[in-house]
Amino acid sequence: MSSQTSKFLKFGSAMVAILLALGYLAYTGVQESKSYYVTIKELHGMGDGAYTKRLRVAGNVQPGSIRRSGTNVNFVLVENDQTLKVIYNGTEPPPDTFKDDAQALAEGKFDRDGVFYAKQIQAKCASKYAPQQGTAAAGTASAATPGSSSN
Question: Domain 36-129: which CATH class?
Fold first, then answer.
């Protein structure tokens, strides 16, 4: 085997090793950042699969269930007749819109103790996005101006 061929094989095998390592890192990065969106009912019906995946669960915050301690918050999400106890241990405090009856989205892991451990929460106040009283009627007002008539 010539020295030219030997150098080509060494270079080629080094490139293959680098590409395989980059592919592995990309794959594991995607797997760690991937989260599945499920409803509370679907979460309770997932069985053992719920304990191994990173999940996102939405619902309304049950009135009176919020217990704050610094950036840690315990609360209950409600969806139809289903409830889910959530413990948020994040680095940031919950948003200002996080309050009773707010729509909330928790992202984290479900544990065998029946508690959802969230690393992130998002919330929006439903009344903030609802149309205000009287604005819908303003768009249906007549375009006719006083004093105009047709002959």
Answer: mainly beta
